[in-house]
Amino acid sequence: MGEALRVGIAGLGTVGASVVRILAEKSAELTRQCGRAVTVTAVSARNRARDRGITLDGIAWFDDPVELARKGDIDVFVELIGGEEGAAKASVKAALEAGRHVVTANKALLAASGLALAEIAEKKGVLLNYEAAVAGGIPVIKTMREALAGNAITRVFGILNGTCNYILTRMEQEGISFADCLADAQRLGYAEADPTFDIEGHDTAHKLSILTSLAFGTKISPSAIYMEGISNITQADIRAAGELGYRIKLLGVAQRTDSGIEQRVHPTMVPTASVIAQVHGVTNAVAIETDILGELLLSGPGAGGNATASAVIGDIADIAKSRPGFQHGPVFGRPAKELAPYRKARMRAHAGGYFIRLTVHDRTGVFAAIAKRMADNDISLESIVQHASGEDSSDRKTVILVTHETTEAAVRKAVEGMEKDKHLLDKPQVIRIERAA
Ligand code: HSE
């Protein structure tokens, strides 16, 4: 039996406290699995006095996480502080520079500084593990970095934010308002400290930027992601989607196209019969399409203390099982120095089907004018229906268009034209349709 792996944990919020508790409860089993004990020897958090429901007896306390990273009696530094800059970044950098392995759940940090940190880790020959940063407890990083070696990935997409999926699911199933669902997600501990990060798509974009790098061997580039959140999705959209055989999900999608790599986060219509449409509540899912394997779909708990702690503990166990001198694989699947610059596909070139919901005056010629704008932009319609909505009045009608495959540029031009025609009573709602098995 080897010497115990000494773990230092910075950040004792919901996830940090779960990690400490589970490492203690599962100590004997982890020792059997890793061939050595895994022991928390030091922690750092803001408030020493707070009751976290865990015992910290015999564990060294550091007020400063950077001090813990540099000087703690530890082999692994676990960063659960969160945030793109500040103490999280400073402490991870300090730990790597001091030759300590790092485990982090911090997607914002990796999206912003992942490559620089990977370069330090690779130079120092230590591990930088981040399974918990993407899709909570789903082992998607290990799958992409290890299990899919040799596969060329063509598209990766998924439900990467538990809060948004929880909100959309409850809005659909219970007809509850957006605000009430968000308040419940916050109460249950799924949402980020600033929930606009969840609902406006930033959290999904951070996670997607990491998956894109792993999938395509490119530099991480979150600022290149086209992003729309779910805050303007209404009950009218959800009902219309259901009637047309679709369900609305906030998806992050990265795919290789002829004009470069497309990265986008937006509310998306997926066929109700598709597997990803069955992913409800806080559950996340990631679909990966490859040349050798075909399509793989992983789903599981994407947010919350235990889901995230499970991934963190898996990463710690991998380090416990590794041996000095063993050449670990690169952090983002290829050596950080070799990750290629990112060729961004323009969003206007995106090709796909579209759902367009219009609120119009009920007058002669309105349908004809709408159809003309579509035809003028070479958009072929799969369906055009006047929707029977309880909110419609005698002069106010809802029209739903579903297009065959077209381009974003054509749809934007057609909608601009409809706005000029002055038949519209509200801002048009445009939701992209995603192909999903
Ligand atoms: N706020 C995130 C979510 C937590 O809702 O998925 C996990 O990253």
UniProtKB/TrEMBL annotation:
Chain positions recorded as NADPH binding sites: 107
EC number: 1.1.1.3
Domain of life: Bacteria
Associated pathway: Amino-acid biosynthesis; L-methionine biosynthesis via de novo pathway; L-homoserine from L-aspartate: step 3/3; Amino-acid biosynthesis; L-threonine biosynthesis; L-threonine from L-aspartate: step 3/5
Domain ACT: 355-437
PANTHER family, per the entry: HOMOSERINE DEHYDROGENASE
Transmembrane segments: none
Keyword match Coiled coil: no
Name of this chain's protein: Homoserine dehydrogenase
InterPro entries listed in its UniProt record: ACT-like_dom_sf, ACT_dom, Asp/hSer_DH_NAD-bd, HDH, HDH_cat, HDH_CS, NAD(P)-bd_dom_sf
